[in-house]
Amino acid sequence: MLLFGGSGAHGAVDDTWIWEGANWTEQHPSVRPAARSDPVLAFDNATGRMLLFGGVDSRGTLLNDTWAWNGATWEEQSVAAAPPARKAASM
After folding, report:
1. Which string of b and e fits 57-80 if b means at least 16 CB within 10 Å?
2. For 17-37, what is each residue's pLDDT tens digit?
3. Rounded Cα–Cα distance for residues 84 and 7 (Å)
């Protein structure tokens, strides 16, 4: 299970955590999405990766970027078209 971002004591955060059945372990990828709260995450069966879309940054700006997590690293996805920026969506 993957956790990314959210709202911390000082605004949106950009940390990545993995649930390993009994404990959460923080990951430290060198590249990661910008800090945000309320992104949407879903597993992509076709690629075996988690996809992250959108959210809102600490200034209240809605985001519409797409990222993929392969279990070790984040990679921003280049897309020809994306939905309008949003937060708290469902996939």
Report:
1. beeeeebebbbbbeeeebeeeeee
2. 999 999 999 999 999 999 999
3. 22
